[in-house]
From TrEMBL:
GO terms for molecular function: iron ion binding; stearoyl-CoA 9-desaturase activity. The histidine box domains are involved in binding the catalytic metal ions. Its main location: membrane. InterPro entries: Acyl-CoA_DS (IPR015876). It comes from Drosophila virilis (Fruit fly). The keyword Oxidoreductase applies. Belongs to the fatty acid desaturase type 1 family. It is a multi-pass membrane protein. The chain crosses the membrane at residues 28-48, 54-77, 175-196, 208-229. Keywords: Fatty acid biosynthesis, Fatty acid metabolism, Lipid biosynthesis, Lipid metabolism, Membrane, Oxidoreductase, Transmembrane, Transmembrane helix. Its EC number is 1.14.19.-. It is found in: Membrane. The gene is Dvir\GJ10409. This is Uncharacterized protein.
Length: 340
């Protein structure tokens, strides 16, 4: 009898254990789904309101907040916090934290954690942004679903010690709801209504819904842009992706292998985008320091070393980057033509 009871207990336990499919299943995050539905419908109507009813002060103010939100996502979350492409002073980190809150995409902590998992599992099934699927899966679908139980476990393995030691990031995480209401709702809606003479309807459609429509879609490109600008081997008659390293064009291939280069833009550009320019301006103001980059010389030398030694390309390039670090002047970002 004891043996049968033990067997029944084991069988019962195995029935309760989730299958692999259940372990990887992602359910819809219905509050987010409903929010996105409203954003797309009301934000689209906001375009009509912008051209027919909104005043110029409202349009310019909303455009400014939109640009600041995009700056918080690209320069803040992506380049500063997720990839540590440079270090920032406390005032700059506070500024970028406020800008990121304007984007309304969740806390810096959660976005960085998810993006680091995205890089670690790029082109794998566990990537929360479906880098193996399609642009729409990465741009929209992945943001509408909860994490699977497997992804939740993988998120716990992501090293977030630098975020946990950043008081500004943790402050935002703790008080995010209040910051969101103040910066992402009241500021963009109340300012045109209170000071520009707009109706509450125009202020809401333009200042909140249209702005969120733009910022959410631009911000999501951080995880989906590789589908737009990516060129894989199968698309060209070549047996090597080395051309991506030599020219440092076709951003995704370069960025996903060497993500710490501050000059890698989010939208297919390298060294010439708005985010890169802003980082250089912050550096000139002595607010951004230790700008990390990979010179063309280091790339060529690393490729040569990889061919000669048959070692991994990234390992060889990073070795060359370390060798040239001492040769780069502190203000190399001011003369990128010479030092890049």
């Amino acid at each position: 009898m004891g043996g049968h009871a033990k067997t029944d207990a084991v069988n019962s336990g195995s029935k309760d254990a989730p299958t692999e499919a259940e372990f990887k299943k992602r359910d819809a995050n219905w509050p987010v789904v409903l929010f996105y539905i409203h954003v797309y419908i009301l934000g689209t109507y906001g375009i009509y309101v912008t051209f027919t009813s909104a005043s110029w002060p409202t349009i310019l103010f909303t455009a400014l907040l939109t640009l600041l939100g995009m700056l918080g996502v690209t320069v803040g979350v992506h380049r500063l916090w997720a990839h540590r492409t440079f270090t920032a002073t406390v005032p700059l980190r506070v500024f970028l934290m406020l800008c990121q809150t304007l984007a309304g995409q969740g806390t810096i902590y959660s976005r960085v954690q998810a993006h680091r998992l995205h890089h670690a599992k790029f082109q794998e099934d566990d990537d929360p942004y479906y880098s193996k699927q399609s642009f729409m899966y990465a741009q929209l679908h992945g943001n509408l679903l909860k994490y699977s139980r497997q992804q939740e476990q993988l998120l716990l393995t992501v090293d977030m010690s630098d975020m946990e030691n950043d008081g500004i990031v943790m402050f935002q995480k703790r008080y995010y709801v209040l910051l969101y209401i103040g910066l992402n709702v009241l500021l963009p809606v109340n300012t045109p209504f209170q000071y520009f003479g707009e109706t509450l309807g125009v202020s809401t459609f333009v200042g909140f819904w249209l702005r969120n429509l733009i910022v959410l879609n631009v911000g999501n490109l951080v995880n989906s842009a590789h589908f737009i600008w990516s060129i894989h081997k199968g698309f060209k008659p070549t047996d090597s992706n080395s051309i991506f390293f030599i020219t440092k064009s076709f951003w995704p291939q370069f960025h996903y292998l060497l993500p710490y280069d501050y000059q890698s833009g989010e939208f297919g550009d390298y060294a010439s985008g708005t985010g890169t320019t802003m980082i250089r301006i912050f550096a000139a103001l002595d607010m951004a320091k230790n700008l990390r980059t990979v010179s063309s010389v280091a790339v060529r030398n690393g490729l040569t070393l990889a061919v000669e030694t048959k070692r991994p390309i990234v390992e060889c390039i990073e070795e060359q980057v370390k060798l040239e670090q001492n040769a780069l002047p502190a203000n190399h970002y001011l003369n990128r033509e010479k030092f890049m």
